[in-house]
Amino acid sequence: MQSTAYERLVAHLKRAHYLGTVAGLLGWDEQVNLPPDSADQRAEQLALLAELQHAAAADPAIGELLRELDSVAAVDQAVVVREARRDYERVVKLPASFVAEKARHASAAYHAWAAAKQADDFSAFAPFLQKHLDLARQEAAFLGWGDRPYDYAIDKHDPGLTAAKLTALFDELKAGLVPLVRSIAASPARPPAGVLQKFPVEAQRDFLREVTEKLGFNYRRGRIDVSLHPFCEGAGADIRMTTRFDADNPLDSLFSSIHETGHGLYEQGLPLAAQGTPLGQNAGMGVHESQSRLWENQVSRSRAFWRFFEPRFREKFPAQLAGVSSDELYLAVNEVAPTLIRVDSDEVHYNLHILLRFEVERRLFAGELAVAELPATWNALSQELLGLTPTSDRTGVLQDVHWSGGAFGYFPSYCLGNMIAAQLWFTVRSQYPELDSDFAAGDFSRLLGWLRTQIHEQGRRYEALELVRRVTGEELTPKYLLRYLHERYAPLYLG
Amino acid sequence: MQSTAYERLVAHLKRAHYLGTVAGLLGWDEQVNLPPDSADQRAEQLALLAELQHAAAADPAIGELLRELDSVAAVDQAVVVREARRDYERVVKLPASFVAEKARHASAAYHAWAAAKQADDFSAFAPFLQKHLDLARQEAAFLGWGDRPYDYAIDKHDPGLTAAKLTALFDELKAGLVPLVRSIAASPARPPAGVLQKFPVEAQRDFLREVTEKLGFNYRRGRIDVSLHPFCEGAGADIRMTTRFDADNPLDSLFSSIHETGHGLYEQGLPLAAQGTPLGQNAGMGVHESQSRLWENQVSRSRAFWRFFEPRFREKFPAQLAGVSSDELYLAVNEVAPTLIRVDSDEVHYNLHILLRFEVERRLFAGELAVAELPATWNALSQELLGLTPTSDRTGVLQDVHWSGGAFGYFPSYCLGNMIAAQLWFTVRSQYPELDSDFAAGDFSRLLGWLRTQIHEQGRRYEALELVRRVTGEELTPKYLLRYLHERYAPLYLG
User: Fold this and answer.
1) In a 3-state reduction of DSSP, which class is residue B332?
2) Chain B: closest CA distance from residue A218 (Å)
3) Nearest C-alpha of chain A: how many angstroms from B144?
């Protein structure tokens, strides 16, 4: 049987995709299982896979098939051809030697960053960061974005977004967010400190398994393990989430796990039959983050969620929660307090951490800021936005891993995701006013079903902004995020 | 800097090697971590890796470099070139389509075997086994061994061995073994049944970690996890062992783990700098098995070993061992009793299980036995050799996984390993009479050091039979295995 050009294209795309999933599994294994002295060997394996994946994605046969498929009738096939062309045109513009150089530098820079953070010494990391910036500019130039390297970095993670569009959104968000943060800071309401102590890890594990299953994660096609930093990796029928445990901070593990579950539900909801093609791929980092945030924040910090899960939580930890009232527990779930560390931040302050990073990246790429000046600028922006000045590089400019991998333009996705999540939230709640009673009964299937149809099953059919427009009937705006934060936190802190 | 032809050859070999290590890790993960409904996806990943590995190993550039390196002066380089040529000449003779077909069939046959075993129905597996036999004959023909397909299957696992050589060794072994087994069967001495009960898994885990570390396994370059069947996988700086736990059978877990540790010590002892080249590879399955058996049996079932570890074992499990005397414990460690199941067998009967499989494989390849006749032949041989007739296919012909993967010629390696282990054991003990006092003091470094120098660091320099001749000063013979079994078991059972 003769296969069609379209079928041959899909077979080529799947090759590159499966090589990517193998690299993903090795990355997961590196963080979950790798023996301490095996890192060099893993680096060799990953470098080889990166080279083979690049070769598979840049296979000239794909270019020929794309030319042959210039006018495809079927709508779905046209989406695949359009997006595959977009990917292919990018990948062939990057020389294999550049891909290898960048991968090698990312590995070296990661270790330099880890050592610099340990030693609390930004200057030891500075030359690696500078080289990453140079490589990012080179990459943009290869791709034909030489005059707009930061836009290229943003577009890589969220196609269609630009620094200008983000600036407009973020300025409006900041204008509404800063007064809210100031009011909460001035409020006397505070969760009682240190009331959640000595929660045995095994029981935490059982509880988060129950919660994440109820939310809809399919453990027959995925798992959860422990790693230093929680993440979600995998594709198709094998989604791997990680979490971490702290006996004296059970909510950290729980909400991290729910966050990763949001990512996992998105990946599990992508059409499995289209795996390896753009129709089976996610619509970018911002949309991905909207899914994790919606489940973590809008859903799981709600009264309705806790109406169902509080009795179960108390059943698992009767002694630990004996002296904690329902209101205290709910306030602990929704604690708002500034912190220097992004990943420890509550959802109100979180966006300010992103605005800081976006501003720094924007200036670096615009040539307004030199790498050597970065710590001072970081600290000044931290004081301005969060009201806190880092006491060290470790708790300041060196805190995040992203730049050590050359991942510029990635941070804005987090804030974009928060805005998208809130806008989706108001849309679905207007369509289904009964969601709160669903949650209070432990039923999350109506919400998940809606997300499946509206977001997950769309794959990469639409760019983030168009997807939001289609699903919510409105342009993306920060006003829903602001409205959500007010509705959730004003009664608790400004009541 | 211009790289030499030799350096370019090594770079090519390493590519194929690292692709093999990636496939190995995915195989490990499949047995340790894979979610239940992710198997199809894993099969896709493994098929792609097999194809890429074959392409890397059959790269015509290797052939050109090998021609260029026809006369290499340096001894080590000559070994690499010789063995690389042997590998290359095999791999290029196998068409990629055949490799893919065999891999696909192995995956289908594995699932068919698992279902047939579950259903206790050999006939459901028979056509898959027949196809594997056909493929094995085809493979031998591709390689130019069309007239000796079983010799090819044996040579694949143990270069230099043939069915005729094995028959001679195994006949002599059988002649000595059967009377020993009959005497032990007639002996009234028996370990007290069911005395080792309720050993908590966590404490078992701690104890086996202590034991395997003492033996010399480097956990900075390896780990141990749980899987249905214990195995050891990995290469270079990342060796993964697995075990399984049964609260009422702590010795099963302990000795399985020590067995895998023997494999792991061998892999960890191969020269890391030569990884990916034949000098960094093991000398075949028989030698590999000699290492696992030597640590599992000769070392860890000895009085001296238990002199050191018994107090530690009792410290971990004071209540469970309170009513068990030292002699009873030592008898339990060295229990001899026939069983239908190879993997549950003691080391005396174990070799009879292998002789059975060797005989069956030999007849199948010789055309003396049809697949449909296999259960009846198996059962008759089982009665003849073990004195037991299987009550079902599940406990008979379907018990082992090997044939479902088309791994013919593999079983003999186990028995070969037992013979090599015993011969090495008498050699090292004649050189170091103080080994027993080492062990009684918990020091295994002298033995490991000797194995490192004599066996591990040799890589694939010598074929198994030549390696044995060089290290022991004698041709391989079963007499040392027979002598060892007599010395260990006669005092216990024929006292």
Assistant:
1) helix
2) 10
3) 32
Distance CA B356, CA B365 (A): 15
**Total length of chain A:** 495
- Across the interface, of B18, B35, B52, the residue whose CB is closest to A44 is B18
Both tokens of residue B113? 């075997």
ipTM above 0.85?
Answer: yes
The two tokens of residue A495 are 């009541």
Segments of B190-291 assigned E as strands: 222-226, 232-235, 238-243
> What single-letter DSSP state applies at residue A234?
E
B434 Cβ contact partners less than 8 Å away, ≥ 6 residues apart: B446
Per-residue pLDDT of chain B (495 residues; tens, 9 = 90+): 578 999 999 999 999 999 999 999 999 999 999 998 998 899 899 999 999 999 999 999 999 999 999 887 788 999 999 999 999 999 999 998 898 899 889 988 998 999 999 999 999 999 999 999 999 999 999 999 999 999 999 999 999 999 999 999 999 999 999 999 999 989 988 888 888 999 999 999 999 999 999 999 999 999 999 998 899 999 999 999 999 999 999 999 999 999 999 999 999 999 999 999 999 999 999 999 999 999 999 999 999 999 999 999 999 999 999 999 999 999 999 999 999 999 999 999 999 999 999 999 999 999 999 999 999 999 999 999 999 999 999 999 999 999 999 999 999 999 999 999 999 999 999 999 999 999 999 999 999 999 999 999 999 999 999 999 999 999 999 999 999 999 999 999 997
Residue by residue, DSSP assigns A149-198 as: HHHHHHHHHSTT--HHHHHHHHHHHHHHHHHHHHHHHH----PPTT-S--
B181's enclosing H/E stretch is helix B163-186
The helix (H) or strand (E) run that includes residue A242 is strand A238-243
Question: Per the CB < 8 Å rule, is B36 touching A238?
Answer: no
What residue ranges define each of the domains in chain A, with the CATH number in brackets?
5-93 (no CATH), 120-495 (1.10.1370.30)
Contacts of A49 in chain B (CB under 8 A): 22
**Tokens at B81, concatenated:** 């070139």
**Amino acid found at A10:** V
Instruction: Report the alpha-carbon distance of residue A269 to residue A287 in Å, rounded.
Output: 13
Q: Retrieve residue A55's tokens.
A: 């070769």
Looking at residue A221, the DSSP 8-state letter turns out to be: G
Q: Are A49 and A22 in contact (CB under 8 A)?
A: yes
Q: What is the DSSP letter of A473?
A: S
Q: Is A38's CB within 8 Å of B238's CB?
A: yes
DSSP B3: P
Q: Pairing between strand A238-243 and A232-235?
A: antiparallel
- DSSP class of residue B159 equals T
CA distance A430 to B126: 61
